[in-house]
Amino acid sequence: MDVKRSTGTDKKRFKALAEYFPESLFMNTLCNVDVLGYIAYRQDRGIANKTINKELSLLSSTIRWAKQKLDWELPNPVVGKRLPEENDEARCLTVDEFSKLLCSAKQAWSSHTRRYLPEFCILGFCTMMRPGEMLELDWERVDFANEVVRLEVEHTKGKARRLVPLNDEAFAALLRLRRVCDEYFPDTPWVFTHTKPRYFGKRIQDVRKVFQTAVDRAGIAHATPHCLRHTSITECVHAPNANLVDISRVAGHRNLKTTMGYVHTADKRLREVVANLPSVQR
Fold it and tell me: Which of 87, 89, 164, 253 has the most CB within a 10 Å radius?
């Protein structure tokens, strides 16, 4: 049986559900009051509606699975409880902000962090890869000869194989990571591997904490690792002779609408669009 790429995330959401609902609760007694109580419980802890909706969606999917696969007669009080979500535009860094972030990453207090975080930022900015795609990357899929990274079906969110071309900066970042591996653990399969003694030789699974530290030190507005992907796609779209279809393929999107959802246009660029209109004065 195939394992979902989101299995780890589902486990975290189940943990939140398990913290509220007692083990003694029978599924066939779950009612509206229980679900509304859970919503209030999570909101009181400052959890965003979007996150709560995902947790409730998982609970609802579990109930549907039990009904379909086990023939259990269960109510589904989750139906109709979806909360309104704020449609905030995801963060996109300016080139100047990214430069500050990269400089900050290079100044990390820990030498172990300095060995990988700058390269992570460069790859995110230059390849449009998702944070998980980068952290799960193994050396067998890095093709230095052809200057591409191969992402197979099982490695991508969109369940589609794709080739990620490497520009000079991304290529150089991977070479530096290869040298780190050659120095500390030549046999490691992982591109991002810990040099910290406590986790020595293990794959780096999460960079959110060190990334946030770098963001704070850089003095820029809130940003997450996924912002690198938004920034990369946006800069590619606004580059001279940009081809949206090609960008969509490199990003791993199945349709152009998804790619456009990643594009952020600064006010200055919007002004440039109308500034380039032909003059109508005679």
Answer: 164
Tell me the per-residue pLDDT of 116-161, one tens digit each, with 9 for 90 and over: 999 999 999 999 898 999 999 999 999 999 999 998 867 667 666 7
Q: How many domains is the chain partitioned into structurally?
A: 2
pTM of the model: 0.69
Please indicate, yes or no, whether residues 146 and 246 belong to a single structural domain of this protein: yes
Distance CA 120, CA 105 (A): 9
**Span 221-234, pLDDT tens digits:** 889 999 999 899 88
DSSP string of 216-254, one letter each residue: HHHT-----TTHHHHHHHHHHHTSTT--HHHHHHHHT-S
CB 192 within 8 A of CB 209: no
CB 254 within 8 A of CB 159: no
Q: 151: domain CATH number?
A: 1.10.443.10
